[in-house]
Design brief:
The complex is a heterodimer of chains A (271) and B (271). Chain A is mainly alpha-helical and 271 residues long. Chain A has two domains: 2-37; 55-269, MetI-like (MetI-like fold, Orthogonal Bundle), CATH 1.10.3720.10. Chain A has helices at residues 2-37, 54-95, 97-112, 115-126, 130-134, 136-162, 164-173, 178-189, 191-207, 210-215, 223-233, 236-262, and strands spanning 40-42, 46-51. In chain A, strands 1-2 form a two-stranded antiparallel ribbon. By secondary structure, chain B is mainly alpha-helical. Chain B has one domain: MetI-like (MetI-like fold, Orthogonal Bundle). Helices cover 77% and strands 0% of the residues of chain B. Chain B has 13 helices and no strands. In chain B, helix 3 packs across helix 7. The longest helix of chain B has 34 residues, at 50-83. Chain B is globular. Classes of the chains: A mainly alpha (271), B mainly alpha (271). Chains A and B meet through helix 1, helix 2, helix 3, helix 4 and helix 6 of A and helix 1, helix 3, helix 4, helix 5 and helix 7 of B.
Amino acid sequence: MSAKRTASARLIFAGQLTFTLLVAAFLIVPAVLSMMAGVTANYFRGIRSGVTLDWVMQVWELYADTIGRSFLIALSALAVTLVVGIPAAYALHVRGGRLSRLVEEIITLPLAVPGLAIALALLLTYGGFGEFRRSWTFILAGHVIFTLPFMVRSVMAVFAAIDIKTLDEGASSLGASPWRRFRDVIVPNARPGILAGSLMVVTLSLGEFNLTWMLHTPLTKTLPVGLADSYASMRLEVASAYTLVFFIMIIPLLIAMQLLADRGVMGRGRR
Amino acid sequence: MTLSSFLRFCLLPLAVVVIAFFLLPMARLMVVGGSGELGLSAYAAILLEPRYRATLINTVVLAAATTIATLVIATIAGLFLQRQRFFGRSVLIALLTFPLAFPGVVVGFMIILLAGRQGLIGDITSFLTGEKWVFAYSIQGLFLGYLYFSIPRVILTIMAAVEKLDPSLEEAARALGASPWAVHRDVILPALGPAFVASGAIAFATAMGAFGTAFTLATNIDVLPMLIYTEFTLSANIAMAAALSVGLGLVAWAVLAFARTFSGGTVAAAG
């Protein structure tokens, strides 16, 4: 009986493992294929045709500006979400109550409303402001709205976990002004949440497509916009090399996020 | 400065950014949606006009199919990964969650590499059966793409829920003589109910609004985001595009709000 049971348990284990490996293969094999295709001389003939960096060089010549612009927008979005998000998270946490929850609800809406709708709304409102509409800051506005909830929630999660009110009251009883308490007590204590939120903001901004496709102009293309462009009009090797460049940009960010999560500091801030 | 005025000062940048770049534009979107040739009945046309209704049904069916398939796959894999300890487990989890940060366009490209004209599936099937399967640009390809970006999100939620299950309930069921299958059916799956609702809602809302993947793959398929895009850019039917985006935003928001009241957790879609 028990021998039979362990045999069947082993069979179930093997079945589940095979299934899970197949799911992983479905997700990973195409990513590996695209990385290989980006450095293969001729994808149709396979890797035997030789390994080359020509495609990557070609991507650099064609799309270097999109890579630079994506970093510019991601870092600017980070700067704005830091300045706007950290004080807001602090105020929302300390004030509490129904009004704060309503505000939190409103700023989280852009996660539920599809990017296409937000982009359309921005176009209908600011499309007539030529200077603004043509510059990269128009895209930045969309990215800030999309990434802000991640910063606010990630910082609020830390406040909820470390009893910031007691720390704040302690500093207050020593006569520190609200601004000094914010600078010297609140922000240093919120550091793990700020770090997690920042990684999230930069990663999401670098990969944002749904809003950006509607908001961009031929002179303000970002990396994902360029990717869509190359998927539609370039040979597979160039599209793959471009995707490879994108992977190289975001993989360090993903690994950093994973390490933070393993250390348990992301807590409830994670989706 | 008193604390309460400092807190108000902290919320000021948030108020400015959210009102200027989210609330005002969304209000404008709703107004424009009701100010075209059809007036307010543009909103009714989403359901009454045969072409729009067919697209809406298409999108809902595709999103529902994606949700169900993802839940089944993620539950099998998630239960296994959370319950079993084996060599390489953490690597496998990292691989399964790696595509979380892929933009929709990149997911579309992954499907092209799997099921496109030079795709892996085509190579394998032409080797095995002599017939080359190419379906990246069909509804099956889009379904595969939606699965691709839903599986990582849902697996994470299911694994977190499995971790929180009370093992004593299962032990009690087993002690009372329940078979492994009965334990799963009567104890484990019902206890995972809230996680199914929460992660299912995310998968559904994300699939409804997914633009990037559809943009890369759905040249011939009518799904709601592509309809909005073509109404706006090709037909210049801006009022209808606005009405459709408001409708899409409302559906996505309502599904997530329902899931949140039902499961009590925080739920958000992105991508």
